[in-house]
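Hey,
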Amino acid sequence: MVVTLNSFGKIRPLSLCLFLFIAMTVFPSASYAEWAEWILDTSLSSRYSDNINYIFASEEKRGDFVTSPSISLGRYYQLGEYTRLRLTADVSSDIFALYHKLDSILAGPSFVLVQKLGLGHEIPWISLNGSASYLAVSDSNRDSMIYTVGINAGGYISERIDLQAGYQYTARRGKNLDAAEEGASGRVFDLNSQRISFIANFLATPSLVITPGYSYNTGDFVSSACKDYVNEIKYSSKANILDDAYEEPMWTYKMHGHSHQLLFGASYALTGHLSLNAGYSYVLGYASGWKYYENIEKFAIMYSF
């Protein structure tokens, strides 16, 4: 495993905040009688993407398997009869089978504030969520702070079907790197994006949930290409750097575009806390007249306490 203890050292600017946050959630004051219950969510997932460098030219695509362990620890806080706050400290990692310079650790606090619109399991709800995390990557050029804020709403339309819709804004703030060409920006990993998503959950059997979904993404994204394509993309990129994260000289650049993502997932409950999950996503992106395709297959084991 290439994500070493040195990678954890990169999280020092956030370590004190994480310690105070965990202390607050795990050891609340006795006056906080409304703390409802503990949260312990863990997962181990594996996915394969056939275009991890997200390039429009099919012959330049790089594919890889990614293993992703994650854990969230926190508590719920009951603010009112229909209002609940979830506070967690979250840590996750991406471990690549081939491109180890992309191995990473993401850590930080998050919250979800849920407001139900009445009493009962079938009553609609609305939620506000946000997070602030530090991303430490084996290729330190990619180290970044990542901030998210979003709003979601959902409700049951029958005993077996519930629908959800959401909006999320993500801001990533990276380093000011040396640009690949004179006069260009090197802030490749300063990214702003927005996502609108729609999903449906179908309870096929008491243990099996089927989840189709769609999301529309717009904003900045990062792509990497070999030198043969530099002349085609250099005038359209918003920032660019020379990069060897894919173990060969490449041109990594920032573009502005949009994409459509179709997904299909299934979750099978083994127990009340443990489930097996599988999914497939197809991504079609557009930027400066080019099309970007990506296929993602994912399998996960999840435990929630």
